[in-house]
């Protein structure tokens, strides 16, 4: 899925679950690079790159969205096993939250 590499130690912000509502933060700039995405963290000056699937997830979280819905879109659009999609979406979103590029707004009721 996505690639989030840097030398900073990520801060542990809110834990991302399937019921979390997540959204990209405003202090970033992103650009489509032919199906992939480059993200600049304006507050920290770090660049991040996301592959095609990561770019699609990034596109989806430009508006507040429940993680389970993001997982559903990935399952519909890509040939991937459900458990792998769920795990990889959660992993990428947690990495983006830890790097303060995405925030967890709340949990939706069970």
Per CATH, which architecture? Alpha-Beta Complex
Q: Radius of gyration, Cα only, in angstroms?
A: 13 Å
The CATH C-level name is Alpha Beta
Most strands sheet: 4 strands, antiparallel
CATH topology: Outer Surface Protein A, domain 3
> What is the count of DSSP helices, taking H or I runs of 4+ residues?
3
Can you give the helix content as a percent range? 25-40%
Stretches with pLDDT under 50, minimum 5 residues: 3-11
Mean pLDDT: 88
Order of helices and strands: EEEEEHEHHE
Describe this entry's structure for a reader.
The chain has 110 residues and is α+β, with helices and mostly antiparallel strands. It has one domain: Outer Surface Protein A, domain 3, CATH 3.90.930.60. Helices cover 34% and strands 29% of the residues. It has helices spanning 52-60, 67-77, 82-98, and strands spanning 2-3, 20-24, 28-33, 36-41, 46-50, 65-66, 102-107. The strands form two sheets. The chain has a four-stranded antiparallel sheet with strand order 1-5-4-3. Strand 3 and strand 4 (36-41) form a beta hairpin. Helix 2 packs across helix 3 (82-98). The longest helix is centred in the last third of the chain and has 17 residues, at 82-98. 30% of the residues are buried. Residues 3-11 have low confidence and may be disordered.
